[in-house]
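Design a sequence for this backbone.
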């Protein structure tokens, strides 16, 4: 049964009230009064959810106000309440995200992050599959996001609310991730609108601007997370070399295959990082 909710696309709707309503439904369906850390699983990361911890409850997205079914192959249309080891803590794992290119508006893109905050989370881990600009990062390499460049020309922050993004990707959480996996590199993520892949010229532009990773998600969610006071850890999975660097055409199947190949390492990384954060 689908829960009726105000339309996030309606400018008269308060998106934070919808997030609070969504959090209440999640608490009811999962039996957890609060969750401690949230994960958003991007392209190529779907298999890692099973390695994070025991799933105690699963809720279909379209049963929760403001959420929608997965629109992209390789994403799950549900969210899970997952036990974080034997700590007694809970992780709220979103199996999909709403991408900006779906045309639902920025509020829908960042709804999961706002819901995580309303559900009690103090930190959020944002993952994605991306194109790499560094030829040394072979497909299947996880890379920490140090900073981002938002090329969507949009922001989730509405009105005269000025949000400091100096340390948007929390240094303390990046240190925790490097303690788990000392071999992790880090870089600057560049979000394009999509859904078309970047042209070779756009990839060269991203490199000139200081980018190391290119994709179609994450930056808007990270901004929204900072606005509500969440600590943010961003991890990209390099699923292919970006256009003009890779000698072969880009495809979404390549993204999924890289995710399958890296599932064990990424699952172990996420499970250990989440346990230490929680």
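Sequence:
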């Amino acid at each position: 049964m689908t829960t009726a909710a105000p339309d996030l696309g309606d400018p008269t709707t308060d998106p934070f009230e919808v997030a609070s309503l969504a959090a209440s439904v999640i608490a009811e369906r999962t039996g957890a009064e609060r969750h401690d850390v949230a994960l958003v699983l991007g392209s190529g990361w779907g298999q890692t959810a099973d390695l994070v911890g025991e799933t105690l409850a699963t809720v279909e997205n379209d049963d929760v106000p403001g959420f929608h079914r997965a629109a992209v192959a390789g994403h799950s249309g549900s969210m899970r309440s997952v036990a974080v080891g034997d700590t007694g803590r809970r992780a709220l794992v979103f199996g999909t995200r709403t991408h900006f290119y779906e045309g639902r508006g920025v509020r829908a893109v960042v709804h999961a992050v706002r819901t995580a905050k309303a559900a009690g989370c103090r930190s959020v881990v944002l993952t994605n599959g991306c194109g790499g600009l560094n030829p040394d990062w072979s497909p299947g390499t996880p890379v920490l996001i140090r900073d981002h460049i938002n090329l969507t020309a949009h922001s989730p922050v509405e009105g005269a609310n000025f949000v400091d993004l100096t340390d948007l990707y929390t240094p303390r959480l990046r240190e925790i991730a490097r303690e788990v996996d000392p071999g992790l590199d880090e870089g600057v993520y560049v979000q394009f609108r999509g859904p078309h892949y970047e042209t070779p010229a756009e990839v060269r532009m991203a490199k000139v601007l200081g980018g190391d990773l290119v994709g179609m998600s994450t930056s808007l969610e990270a901004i929204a997370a900072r606005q509500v006071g969440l600590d943010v850890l961003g991890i990209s999975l390099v699923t292919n070399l970006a256009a003009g660097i890779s000698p072969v055409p880009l495809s979404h199947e390549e993204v999924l295959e890289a995710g399958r190949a890296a599932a064990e390492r990424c699952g172990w990384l996420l499970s250990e990082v989440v346990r230490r954060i929680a």
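The CA atoms of residues 5 and 65 lie 5 Å apart.
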